[in-house]
């Protein structure tokens, strides 16, 4: 009787061990497979976003793998990623990650694509907490407003007109919502000022090809607490609209 009970215990323990090992193995296998796919998706999403703000530019490298880190108060933070588009080895465009700190509900994260001459190729908002229906017309899939920066530069309009209309500038504000577009206009203008002053350094950055691709999610700074007393909205992460397509 005692021997039968002991044998049952051994068999049950062995079975449990086998199931536990199989379960752990399965979880590890699924994890390693999905981890790789998630990383690939992030790279593709970053490539899509970069190509959106380099619209119309011809380049023959993969900017996702050709990146650096920039820091300047005018960009809104000390460590922000930047990606370089090259043709024949020469930098023909730079994508700067920028933070507008003075949105209605805190930081607005932007990508600003600039060509080597300092003209804007494209701007997209990647994350914000602005009020739906009031401040979120900065999103490219809600309005055309963000496309108003295309081809603009520090001379077009003159720097003193890089403001919303209510402040005497040339950029539209939204009905009942001036704070959000004002923050974005300031951020793009400051980016161009920084670009102009740093152009020599930026345009002579050596290629970083061969390093790990840099995705937006990897380096974007944590969202700090909103600056206003409004209850914080959930941050809106904006997915790129068009499928990834990079000029090669
Ligand atoms: C609950 C609430 C949410 C608001 N959200 C925004 C916003 O996301 N962006 C914005 O610019 N203004 C927002 N506003 C309006 C601003 O407080 C401010 O009145 C406006 O930006 C000024 O624009 P105006 O000069 O055209 O009136 C909000 C106001 C309220 C009461």
Structure description:
The chain is 32% helix and 21% strand. With 248 residues, it is α+β, with helices and mostly antiparallel strands. The chain has one domain. A 6-stranded antiparallel beta sheet has the order 1-2-3-4-5-6. Strand 4 (106-115) and strand 5 form a beta hairpin. It is elongated. The model is unreliable at 218-229 and 241-248 (pLDDT under 50). The protein binds flavin mononucleotide.
Based on secondary structure, the structural category is alpha+beta
Order of helices and strands: HEEEEEHHE
Strand order of the largest sheet: 1-2-3-4-5-6
Largest sheet: 6 strands, antiparallel
Global mean pLDDT: 87
Terminal Cα span = 77 Å
Strand count: 6
Strand content bin: 15-25%
Percent range for helical residues?
Answer: 25-40%
How many distinct helices?
3
Please compute the radius of gyration using only Cα atoms.
Answer: 24 Å
Count of individual domains: 1
Q: Could you tell me which ligands this complex binds, including any ions or cofactors?
A: flavin mononucleotide
Shape: elongated
Q: Name the poorly predicted regions.
A: 218-229, 241-248
């Amino acid at each position: 009787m005692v021997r039968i009970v002991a044998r049952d215990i051994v068999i049950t323990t062995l079975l449990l061990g086998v199931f536990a090992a199989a379960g752990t193995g399965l979880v590890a296998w699924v994890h390693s497979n999905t981890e790789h796919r998630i990383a690939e998706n992030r790279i593709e999403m970053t490539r899509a976003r970069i190509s959106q703000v380099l619209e119309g530019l011809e380049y023959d490298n993969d900017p996702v793998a050709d990146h650096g880190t920039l820091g300047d108060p005018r960009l809104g933070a000390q460590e922000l990623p930047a990606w370089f588009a090259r043709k024949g080895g020469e930098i023909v465009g730079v994508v700067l990650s920028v933070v507008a700190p003075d949105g209605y509900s805190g930081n607005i994260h932007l990508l600003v694509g600039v060509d080597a001459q300092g003209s804007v190729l494209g701007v997209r908002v990647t994350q914000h907490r602005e009020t739906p229906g009031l401040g979120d017309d900065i999103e490219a899939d809600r309005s055309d407003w963000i496309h108003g920066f295309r081809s603009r530069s520090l001379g077009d309009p003159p720097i003193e007109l890089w403001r919303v209309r209510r402040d005497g500038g040339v950029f539209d504000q939204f009905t009942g919502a001036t704070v959000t577009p004002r923050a974005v206009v300031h951020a793009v203008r400051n980016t161009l000022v920084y670009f102009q002053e740093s152009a020599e350094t930026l345009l002579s950055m050596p290629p970083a090809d061969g390093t790990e691709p840099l995705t937006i999610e990897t380096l974007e700074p944590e969202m700090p607490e909103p600056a206003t007393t409004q209850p914080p909205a959930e941050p809106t992460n904006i997915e790129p609209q068009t499928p990834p397509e990079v000029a090669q």
